[in-house]
Amino acid sequence: MKARIRAVAQVAGLAIGLGLASVALAALTGGLTGSFLGPDESAHYVNTLFIADWLRAGMPAPMAFARDFYVHYPKLSIGHWPPGWYALLAPAAAIGWPGVAAAAVASAFVAGLPAILPAWALARAGRWRVGLAAAIAMLLLPLVVESARAFLLDQPVSLVAGLAVVAWLRAAERPGWGRFALFGALAAFAPLVKGNGALVALIPPIEIALSRRWPLLRDPRLWATGALTALVVAPWYYVSFRISAGGFNYAPGPAYAWLALRSNAAALLGQLGIAGVLLALMGAAGGWRDPRAGAVVRLALAAIAATLAFQSLVPVALDARYVLPAVPWCVALAGLGVVRAWRHGGAAMRVAAIALPVAALAPPVVALARLEPKRDMAAPAIVAAMRADSSIWMVDGRAGGEGAIIAHVAHRDGGMRATWVARASQTLAGSDFMGRGYHVIARTPDAARAILDRIGVSGVVIVRDRMQDPYPHSAILLRAVRQGGYIVTHHRFARGAGEVIVARRDGAALPHPDVLEDAIASDNLRAMTRPAQGDRPSKPAQAPPHRPSR
């Protein structure tokens, strides 16, 4: 018992150390800022605040609450992404109500936790010192560093999927209801963190085939676990699939599968380099029949194959970060390759055991030294100047710029929902969630001013990232506020190229939030929160229901 407690304490200590090292790397490279300028970062943050606010409100009717929340902070996007990770963070967020900077630090910490997986794999193979070195090396890889500098779901899904892989091996080696239940819980949670967490479902069949664990197929506990996992996950995807599938950028089929396989294999090659791939191949080949390492090798290969197969089957997009769940297992195989070269070769192989890791890590270290700091628009200072007393502000920018302002407004309001934010991309123009089908609605400054007056905005914020107009309608909006009636000021980004233009109405404005309520432009929100008969948002209408032109 004492030995088990000591082992758990050691694992927890290593995990904390890796998380803190990840935070340090993100901070040293200028990756922690007070503004979420990534296209998806603010949406994940606002989704977390939404569930936290819902908990603080006493868990009222969720659909009406979501509709009202979206009208105030139109970055709510649960439905496009599942709620699992947000729900896990929400209780702590409800208590502490963390700001963007604190959320960025927490995300950087989580990004370092998957590095515990190669440490576990190599310790399982009897090489814990190599495992420690492999965990540290993994933190230096470009994808891992970038994940530590962004508030996304790829880091937690990599962690949860990795833990599910470990839980599967424990259940496969010593089957029992408790072990299968743990695997089932993690397998259910992974796709509720992010859709590609469903790759965990491919781990058992691949690992069973590689390890020839055919008797497991006759174990009723395996099938019961699969059925219960499906019962947990299926209802969410039955409701939300019509939304999440709208974000797919490709059509399924052999052509996409081959394209995705080549793209994702290239992404892994970009992380490991040729030297790292050679080490991984040596580790896989040399450890396949090893009594201690064999199970780890087959498990790692199953995790890598499951990641590549899932991304080839589901045509969401081609992005290097989607292979993050495979990275820890590639690093584990490379670590086994180092062990193999050092212990089972002559002098030349020992030289290779030193030279190949150095060659594999040199490019990431150089890239780390050259990594540019993230741009920072100083969103807290911009939002601090915006009135918060039942006012409506229009925000214009690309997804990141709009979102950075909306995220800080949501945090500043502290659950009071004192401010409404109107997205110019939804009122002066239109498109779907992915920005497809963009078209301008307000084609002249006068038309834009008419919409501003109809909504009753107190001011306008235009985010010009890299000193570029976000959209064609942005220049029209700027000309509209410069015609008079607004005090226009320019604010340079605190870091990086860009500016924020703030136009405050010169005089009082009567807000008409009912216009926003009646003209919600999000197809996702309409699909997920269509109110029942007589179900109205909690904020009462304050003006006649005039609607902007669509």
Verbal overview:
A hairpin with a 5-residue loop joins strand 6 and strand 7. The protein is α/β, with parallel strands linked by helices and 550 residues long. The chain starts with a helix and ends in a 21-residue tail after the last helix. 50% of the residues are buried. The strands form two sheets. Strands 2-1-5-7-6 form a five-stranded mixed β-sheet, sandwiched between helices. Strands 3-4 form a two-stranded antiparallel sheet. Mean pLDDT is 91; it is low at 528-550. The radius of gyration is 25 Å and the shape is elongated. The longest helix has 34 residues, at 254-287. It has helices spanning 2-28, 41-56, 62-72, 84-96, 100-112, 116-124, 128-139, 142-148, 154-173, 177-193, 203-211, 220-244, 254-287, 294-313, 327-343, 347-370, 379-384, 399-413, 424-427, 445-455, 472-482, 513-518, 523-529; strands spanning 391-396, 419-423, 429-430, 439-440, 459-465, 486-492, 498-505. The protein folds into two domains: 2-30 and 99-370, no CATH class; 37-98 and 376-550, no CATH class. It has 23 helices and seven strands. Helices cover 61% and strands 7% of the residues.
**Arithmetic mean pLDDT:** 91
Shape: elongated
**Could you spell the SSE succession in H and E letters?**
HHHHHHHHHHHHHHHHHEHEHEEHEHEEHH
**What's the end-to-end separation, in Å?**
67 Å
Strand tally, please?
A: 7
Number of helices: 23
Q: State the domain count.
A: 2
Biggest sheet architecture: 5 strands, mixed
Strand order of the largest sheet: 2-1-5-7-6
How much helicity do the residues have? 55-70%
